[in-house]
Amino acid sequence: MEENIIISNLNDFIFCPRSIYFHNLYSTNDSSLYHTTVQQKGRLAHENIDEKKYSTKKTILQGIDIYSEELGVIGKIDLFDTEKKELIERKRKIIKLYEGYYLQLYAQYFCLKEMGYKVEKIGFYSLSDNKKFPVELPSEKEKEELLKILTQMRNFNLEDKHFSQNVKKCRMCIYKELCDYYKDDE
Ligand code: SF4
Question: 40, 73, 92, 118: least CB-packed within 10 angstroms?
Fold first, then answer.
């Protein structure tokens, strides 16, 4: 049986497939050793989520474990309002909605559906400026795209000699000090 993919790794994989290796390697250690300030703040926002500091309303599910057998993924949701049937992923500050964000939200949506929840609305919420970003429910096309990326993740080989890094991403990468493939010239 194939190993389940952790939903939060989708964003890392889209940023750079190699970053998952470092993410998993250091996730059990002190993240302050390599996380930038911005990312630390983002993590703090998520710690509040994991510690369920947001709401005590029984209709709001927070940080619950989710899975999908069909996709082969596991993870956690941020918030699901069972009354409004709305799934929300909060971020500290959203400047741009990246592809990885969408893929994570879609994966959460498909997990909830498979687990028997009725989800009618999905979206993001930017905590620092109080902005909501509604997202259309994913269709079969988005599901196929998600499955394609998950297959790429399963097949990715860290030793692949043909791997070519994106220099712009390398410059922003929090793992650049650790990575042999770091490149900063075009
Ligand atoms: S330094 Fe570059 S190649 Fe290495 S993980 Fe970061 S983005 Fe990827």
Answer: 118
